[in-house]
């Protein structure tokens, strides 16, 4: 498990720090030696730091969960109370009171200060503040040639400037400081002492950390319920454990193989964490239960192969070579609407709320309401088959075999931009509302500004068709038929990493997806590989078919943070057609 996770699971009660006796012995020996060097007696102490309140032993223990985890500042104060008799040195002392203090030093049971030192101290106490400052500067200059003396002076001064700011600041300010730390550092800081543990365990602090990293609150029972009380901190611990299992978990999760499409190709795949929907050129779709591993429904009605699909919480939308779009009830399997209008194969779908956009080989784009089954708009302008569509609720973006990308305002049925630049068919699109990224058979990837309709960057480096892309923020991951995966920064137009080398796919990359901090890629070589998103390093193979390298193919993959689903088969009947699922969640307790 990662060090971050260890820090999260640790509390002052579970510390592996030295015992209290060892700590007291070591600290007292050091402290007493310093005081002996200075005063000739271990029963004296230099002046306390101004404004620092002395705590009783009982008060200090109240702020700690374990006697082994006393704050350093608390420990010094307790040592002062138990072992050292303080000296009060006041700048306003009169010569007579100074004489009394020096008499006390001289009458100590330990070896006394010499008369010269006592006289010097009496003179120093009688000086004005300005003279004291000048005398101190002169003393330091006098000691400048002796390293040991300078170190001794530094060791005497430093404790007066060391403050436990987390404990001493108001809680709101302490939390404001902690919010700038990485989560792992906050977890490690919580092991310092009880006061830090209570502050670093603040639920709003961990909620902010989780929201910054888009980590949802985990509602299900987990293996950390008995060790971490803070629900948001527990969710973060589950997230870190999940990252660890993806990368290092041994053995890999047992694959769940779902068979049902016989030897047909699985052409489309959907996964929402609860159900898997697979579409095939056997004219059907199947709904699989993750909990039972069984086929819940087989959706039959299309008269041609199913080529594309989308899914909501309660509906499935599918497009087919029979030129229709069907809307299915996900629970009952009943077909609620059949959407007629296209005059050729429905090749692609894009869903946003209750609106689905379809692209067809008839060169048109159509907009439908899946609740009512009504056709809302038809967008005409392409001169060849529409291969890919995107929709964000405002703009429809379509890519076609006529080498162009078009940007539409569907409510007005108007094309606002025709993006020209590719010299061959456009096969893939991603759109985040600001940037459009298009992949083409011309080996180029282009980045476009949706508002201006201009090409910002041309990403070169791939040698063939870009089969799949995913965009996260300004990071683009592209998979190509040249067997490589590339990671790009679309704002700078630079290629950050090429995922290749001796562990690369042996043939065309069929699909890519970003999950957590990893890139997952599938290939025509029958493997699914895991890569580090930040470094581009190969981590390991997640799936390797028995017929890998001998006709086995992984056609599609879908991921959530906790699971991988892939559609696999072969081109020469060497591998059964199946859906494979790997569950990486080892923190949830199943009821």
UniProtKB/TrEMBL annotation:
GO molecular function: ubiquitin binding
F-box domain: residues covered: 163-209
SUPFAM superfamilies reported in the protein's UniProt record: F-box domain, WD40 repeat-like
A Gene Ontology biological process term: proteasome-mediated ubiquitin-dependent protein catabolic process
PROSITE patterns membership: FBOX (PS50181), WD_REPEATS_1 (PS00678), WD_REPEATS_2 (PS50082), WD_REPEATS_REGION (PS50294)
Domain of life: Eukaryota
Gene3D superfamilies: 1.20.1280.50, YVTN repeat-like/Quinoprotein amine dehydrogenase (2.130.10.10)
InterPro entries, alphabetized: F-box-like_dom_sf, F-box_dom, WD40/YVTN_repeat-like_dom_sf, WD40_PAC1, WD40_repeat_CS, WD40_repeat_dom_sf, WD40_rpt
Keywords: Repeat, WD repeat
Record carries keyword Repeat: yes
Name this polypeptide is given: F-box domain-containing protein
């Amino acid at each position: 498990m990662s060090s971050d996770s260890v820090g999260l699971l640790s509390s002052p009660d579970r510390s592996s720090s030295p015992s209290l006796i060892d700590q007291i012995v070591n600290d007292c020996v050091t402290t007493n030696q310093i005081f002996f060097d200075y005063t000739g007696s271990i029963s004296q102490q230099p002046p306390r730091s101004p404004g620092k309140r002395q705590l009783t032993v009982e008060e200090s223990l109240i702020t700690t969960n374990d006697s082994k985890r006393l704050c350093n500042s608390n420990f010094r104060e307790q040592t002062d109370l138990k072992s050292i008799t303080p000296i009060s040195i006041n700048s306003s002392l009169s010569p007579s009171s100074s004489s009394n203090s020096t008499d006390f030093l001289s009458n100590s049971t330990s070896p006394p200060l010499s008369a010269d030192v006592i006289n010097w101290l009496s003179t120093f106490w009688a000086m004005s503040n300005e003279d004291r400052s000048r005398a101190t500067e002169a003393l330091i200059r006098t000691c400048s040639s002796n390293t040991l003396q300078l170190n001794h002076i530094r060791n005497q001064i430093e404790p007066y400037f060391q403050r436990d700011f987390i404990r001493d600041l108001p809680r709101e300010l302490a939390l404001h400081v902690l919010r700038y730390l990485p989560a792992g550092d906050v977890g490690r800081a919580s092991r310092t002492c009880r006061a830090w543990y209570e502050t670093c365990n603040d639920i709003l602090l961990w909620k902010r950390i989780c929201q910054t990293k888009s980590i949802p609150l985990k509602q299900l029972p987990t293996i950390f319920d008995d060790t971490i009380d803070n629900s948001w901190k527990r969710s973060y611990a589950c997230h870190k454990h999940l990252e660890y299992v993806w990368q290092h978990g041994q053995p890999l999760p047992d694959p769940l193989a779902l068979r049902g499409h016989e030897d047909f190709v699985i052409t489309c795949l959907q996964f929402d964490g609860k159900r898997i929907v697979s579409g095939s050129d056997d004219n059907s779709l199947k709904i699989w239960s993750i909990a039972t591993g069984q086929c819940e429904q087989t959706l039959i009605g299309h008269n041609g192969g199913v080529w594309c699909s989308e899914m909501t919480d309660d509906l499935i939308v599918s497009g087919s070579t029979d030129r229709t779009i069907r809307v299915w009830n996900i629970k009952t399997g009943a077909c609620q609407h059949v959407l007629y209008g296209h005059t050729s194969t429905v090749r692609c779908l894009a869903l946003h709320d209750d609106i689905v956009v379809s692209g067809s080989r008839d060169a048109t784009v159509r907009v439908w309401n899946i609740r009512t089954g009504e056709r809302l708009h038809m967008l005409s302008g392409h001169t060849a088959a529409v291969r890919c569509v995107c929709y964000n609720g405002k703009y429809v973006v379509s890519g076609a075999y006529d080498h162009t990308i078009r940007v539409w305002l569907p409510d007005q049925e108007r094309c606002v931009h025709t993006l020209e630049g590719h010299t061959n068919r456009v096969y893939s699109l991603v759109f985040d509302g600001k940037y459009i990224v298009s992949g083409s058979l011309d080996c180029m990837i282009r980045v476009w500004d949706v508002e201006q309709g201009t090409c910002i960057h041309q990403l070169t480096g791939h040698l063939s068709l870009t089969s799949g892309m995913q965009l996260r923020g300004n990071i683009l991951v592209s998979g190509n038929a040249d067997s490589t995966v590339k990671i790009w920064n679309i704002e700078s137009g630079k290629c950050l990493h090429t995922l290749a080398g001796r562990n690369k796919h042996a043939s065309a990359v069929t699909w890519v997806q970003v999950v957590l901090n990893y890139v997952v890629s599938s290939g025509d070589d029958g493997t699914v590989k895991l890569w580090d998103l930040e470094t581009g390093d190969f981590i390991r193979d997640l799936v390797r078919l028995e017929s890998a390298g001998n006709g086995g193919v992984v056609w599609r993959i879908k991921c959530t943070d906790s699971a991988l689903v892939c559609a696999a088969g072969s081109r020469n009947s060497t591998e059964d057609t199946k859906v494979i699922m790997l569950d990486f969640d080892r923190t949830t307790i199943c009821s």
